[in-house]
Specification:
Elements (H helix, E strand, L loop, with lengths): L5 E6 L2 H9 L8 E4 L6 E4 L1 H5 L8 H11 L2 E3 L3 H18 L2 E6 L2 E5 L7 H16 L3 E6 L2 H13 L6 E3 L3 H7 L13 H9 L5 H5 L3 H19 L17 E11 L2 H21 L2 E12 L9 E6 L8 H15 L6 E13 L10 H21 L55
Parallel strand pairs: 2-4, 7-8
Antiparallel strand pairs: 1-6, 1-7, 2-3, 5-6, 9-12, 10-11, 10-12
Helix pairs in contact: 4-5, 11-12
The chain binds a DNA duplex through helix 3, helix 8, helix 10 and strand 9.
Length: 438
DNA sequence: TCTGGGGTCCTAGGACCC
DNA sequence: TCTGGGGTCCTAGGACCC
């Protein structure tokens, strides 16, 4: 065994739970949250799963079912989910010295040597998070991340565990782990599961017993690491400090097809604006990127996918420069006569903005632009993203992403905060759904 | 009519170099 | 008869994750 102890805490049906926190009357109703553009279901409560709503189900296919069964349907509200996630992580830091934020609803805690009774400690974490944020969670504990992940999944699936499963406990581990289907393991997707099945391996117990060298031959180092981690050998350590990122992207489907170059340029400029914000937020600058656009892979119409690379003379995070480069690449990539369903900007090489190699000329101009960007970001932080946008990014945005069922930004916007009156909260008023003022 | 977005890691293969 | 070998870097594509 590794000598370390990790706990993986994750929010149950996280996006749905966030909605329920602010609308408690939803607690007994099935709830789902949709992806961008209200495209498909990406979060479902157990009640919604029981109705047969699958992960990734296109909304237009389940719309009738939702209506019939009284499912509460929401567009994604990232302002809300991101804020709830931050609150949960603040709490985790009270329980562990090192926390790795793995995703918006999952964090690994290093709880090595902290508690003698780990199950009780896990329960304490759950109760605190529940009480302080309203979000229900499950906790999985193990000597490696892979085992903690598996324990977390088991905590979810075995009600008798009451939300905490400890795979550092040999009795619990040997009773519950071996029969788990190998496809449920972290890192085993469809292709790997089929490969393993062809080799006679269908359960986690069988995979754990595999010779690591054999696993490497079959599944590269990734498979070898899985086998070792299942046996308590640490291969993936906690990463408390997020590593510098390698790439960045803003890609989005349109709410209706785009057929004119003007609109395409508007969309690309809007995405360039957003990626500029993201770059500055992370203190990064782009060295190399590309623009792409394609038609719908679902529609029965001619398929087209076009892309063009771009590179600034020196690394940049300036919105106007990014718009100039990206729209130029977009014009080069554009081909008339198609119905484009999606476009995006992908930056493949980033550097720290502070390290950018400066050219000899144009220092005054750069300085001016930098001040302008700082002011732009300040305004948008103060008044909400999109309050101040470059004209090129468009104001009408007929192609803009749909969020027709979005709840309020209850926890991050004064204007949308829920108002409670009375003694028992029974007449809690809800504000109007978020609406962007032009 | 309507099917998400944003990441990571790994490998193979080609180009290039000495 | 007989035409090296090993290293690095880059890119594309596959697989996986939430």
């Amino acid at each position: 065994m590794s000598g370390k102890v990790f706990a993986l805490v994750d929010g149950n049906s996280f996006y749905c739970s966030c909605e329920r926190v602010f609308q408690p009357e939803l607690s007994r109703r099935p709830v789902i949250v949709l992806s961008n553009n209200d495209g498909c279901a990406v979060a479902r409560t157990p009640e919604a799963k029981a109705l047969g709503i699958k992960m990734g189900a296109p909304f237009f296919q389940i719309r009738d079912l939702c209506k019939r069964e009284g499912v509460a349907v929401f567009s994604s509200n990232y302002a809300l989910y991101g804020d709830m996630s931050r609150r949960m992580n603040d709490i985790y830091h009270r329980f562990a010295p090192e926390v790795e934020v793995y995703s918006i609803d999952e964090s690994f805690l290093d709880i090595t040597g902290i508690a003698a009774d780990r199950t009780a400690y896990g329960q304490e974490i759950r109760q605190t998070v529940r009480q302080w944020t309203g979000i229900p969670t499950c906790v999985g504990i193990g000597p490696t991340k892979t085992l903690a992940k598996l324990a977390n999944r088991t905590a979810k699936n075995v009600p008798a565990l009451k939300g905490v499963c400890d795979f550092t406990n040999a009795d619990q581990r040997e009773a519950l782990l071996p029969p788990i289907p190998v496809g449920d393991l972290w890192g085993v997707g469809k292709a790997t599961a089929e490969k393993l099945k062809a080799n006679g391996i269908e359960t986690v117990g069988q995979l754990r017993a595999m010779n690591p060298r054999h696993a490497r031959q079959l599944l590269t180092v990734v498979g070898e690491r899985m086998v070792l981690e299942l046996n308590g050998v640490l291969c993936l350590d906690l990463e408390a400090a997020p590593p510098t990122r390698k790439g960045m992207a803003v890609t989005r489907g349109f709410s209706r097809p785009i057929t004119t170059l003007d609109e395409m340029c508007e969309a690309i400029a809007a995405y360039a604006t957003r990626i500029g914000e993201k770059l500055r937020q992370h203190g990064l600058a782009a060295v190399h990127g590309q623009v792409f656009m394609h038609s719908s892979p679902f529609a029965r119409e001619p398929w087209i996918h076009r892309s063009r690379a771009f590179a600034p003379i020196e690394a940049t995070n300036d919105t106007h420069e990014l718009i100039r480069l990206a729209t130029r690449a977009g014009r080069e990539a554009w081909k008339d006569g198609y119905r484009y369903a999606k476009a995006g900007i992908i930056l493949t090489e980033l550097v720290a903005a502070a390290d950018v190699q400066r050219g000899l000329w144009g220092a005054a101009e750069r300085d001016h632009q930098q001040k302008l960007m700082t002011a732009l970001d300040a305004v948008n932080r103060r008044y909400g993203r999109g309050s101040l946008v470059p004209a090129a990014a468009g104001l009408k945005r007929g192609w803009g992403t749909r969020f027709e069922m979005r709840s309020g930004r209850f926890s991050t916007s004064w204007g949308e905060m829920p108002i409670v009156s009375g003694h028992d909260g029974s007449d809690t008023q809800r504000p109007q759904p978020a609406r962007r003022t032009p």
